[in-house]
Amino acid sequence: MKALDLDVMTMIVAVADTGNISRAAEVVHRSQSAVSMQIKTLETALGKPLFVRKPRSVIPTQDGEVLLTYARRMLALRDEAWAAVVRPDVTGRVSIGVPDDYASSLLPPILKKFSASYPKVEIQVVGLPSVALAPMVKDGSVDLVCATRVKGLSGEFIRLEPMEWAAAPSADEIWRERPLPIAVFLPGSVARENAIRSLERAKIPYRTSYESPSLLGLLSMAEAGLAIVPLARCAVPAHFTLLGRAHGLPEIPALEMVLARSSASKRPPCDFLAEKIVSELRR
């Protein structure tokens, strides 16, 4: 009988999402050797390699990508089956902190699905920068935080979110200006620090024409054609233009997205929302 163990499928997804076996081992709470052995055993059973091993990373092969698609579906179906059985009994309240750049695009579809599965759970969303959310999850002001890893905020790794330089279509090649006008989040933002550090390494003069804790504020400045914005890819509006090396701009390091939990979050509503966030954002 051909069997695909769900625990092994979880490992396959974790390795693909993190690009690193040691980090995947942390995600699934297993040793690195155990994860490597399970994947090798499955590859032997299938008679095909699932990953290409590189010095610092692993990437799925074509067959690995095929299996990965099914693995995600299998894990999602497992979660749905579990929720279908237990959801009538799940009640309560969950508070979650999310920064603007993630809340605008990533959170709404997840909360919609969660609310459909657990209609008796009340959800409160707190929108603040990652650096402001770190002490809140520590002191229990919020149950969960889905944010960029910053000092004082540790949690379960979800994924690396790419960063992009972006401009409004009407910006009229503002990216050619020197000093380069940029609109950025306030000091303490990892996105801001990554972008500025990239410009400094590339020796590109810049000026911060606008600072704000609000994503809407940054986008408004860009829409006015007064600056370009460094943003998480998920937060870039569809009609914006992505800028890169072809425009003389440096790459920006990705953001490490994590899910942190307070000590008071060990209860079913928080468990299920946390599982939903992780499973959806790792797809």
From TrEMBL:
<dbReference type="InterPro" id="IPR050176">
    <property type="entry name" value="LTTR"/>
</dbReference>
<dbReference type="InterPro" id="IPR036390">
    <property type="entry name" value="WH_DNA-bd_sf"/>
</dbReference>
<dbReference type="InterPro" id="IPR036388">
    <property type="entry name" value="WH-like_DNA-bd_sf"/>
</dbReference>
<dbReference type="Pfam" id="PF03466">
    <property type="entry name" value="LysR_substrate"/>
</dbReference>
<feature type="domain" description="HTH lysR-type">
    <location>
        <begin position="4"/>
        <end position="61"/>
    </location>
</feature>
<keyword id="KW-0804">Transcription</keyword>
<keyword id="KW-0238">DNA-binding</keyword>
<dbReference type="GO" id="GO:0003700">
    <property type="term" value="F:DNA-binding transcription factor activity"/>
</dbReference>
<dbReference type="Pfam" id="PF00126">
    <property type="entry name" value="HTH_1"/>
</dbReference>
<protein>
    <submittedName>
        <fullName>Transcriptional regulator, LysR family</fullName>
    </submittedName>
</protein>
<keyword id="KW-0805">Transcription regulation</keyword>
<dbReference type="GO" id="GO:0003677">
    <property type="term" value="F:DNA binding"/>
</dbReference>
<dbReference type="InterPro" id="IPR000847">
    <property type="entry name" value="LysR_HTH_N"/>
</dbReference>
<dbReference type="InterPro" id="IPR005119">
    <property type="entry name" value="LysR_subst-bd"/>
</dbReference>
<comment type="similarity">
    <text>Belongs to the LysR transcriptional regulatory family.</text>
</comment>
